Amino acid sequence: MTLRRPFLKWAGAKTKLVAAIREVAPVEAKRFIEPFAGSGAVGLNLGISNNILADANRDLVDVYRELKRDGEKFIDACGALFTGTNNAADAFYRLREEFNATTDRRRKACLFVYLNRHGYNGLCRYNSSGGYNVPFGRYDAPYFPRAEMLQFHDFLATCTLKSSDFRDVLAEAGEGDFVYCDPPYVPASKTANFTAYAKGGFGPKDQLELAAMCQEASRRGAHVVISNHDTPETRQLYEEADETIKLLVSRRISCDGDNRVKAKELLVVYRPAEILT
Fold first, then answer.
1. Residue 55 CA from chain centroid, whole number
2. Which of 35, 92, 213, 223 has the most CB within a 10 Å radius?
3. Alpha-carbon distance 99 to 93, whole Å?
4. Which of 30, 49, 38, 46 is nearest to 14 (CA)?
5. What is the distance between the alpha carbons of residues 78 and 113, in angstroms, rounded to a whole number?
6. What is the pTM of this model?
């Protein structure tokens, strides 16, 4: 099956893990739930007809809402920002300032797509005040993903969109659901801590609560899969899981696409408990 690519560049996007996730997915699922949707790469490629796509990052979810509602009109509005004039540092920082200031959700969603494709290395990052602060990426000709947006628009017809904390989303999971969680990872080292993906961050307490809620969801009958770094902390968090699968995942460590390292990751699986009726 040919992989469908999401239209957003995304640090840690799971396109390359889709095959591994399919291997541990249930054969039949009534509904797919993704509390940390990110680029939506997993749901886009599973072919499930009923999906909940959720994320704590409201800016991201608003992009999906606008694309779902307006399709080509929204795509055209985003494409209007992809000009040679706007592919310059002064224009980027002016538009980033507008993004942080505007209360117009549609305009903000268009700007998000622009910033995502013109910013550094597919990052989505905010400062302590909630301001988007990814620097200019300095690409020769940022690609406008019209075809990918049209394809994602079709996928969104199967989706309920939520701008929600993972706790609220996981509380809905039960019998017949397939849940995939791709949270901000446990740091692979003491100097590699990235939790500023959404306002408020994602710390050790959140990791503990996520592990507990995933196990609870499986006890209600959900089939749950989680991605994370392969570290002693992660293995301890998920020591009661039904299965842990070691993976080596290729990662870019700079804007240079050829500059890659292999990172150790885990897929953690909680299979559904039997539901007594």
1. 8
2. 35
3. 10
4. 38
5. 7
6. 0.91
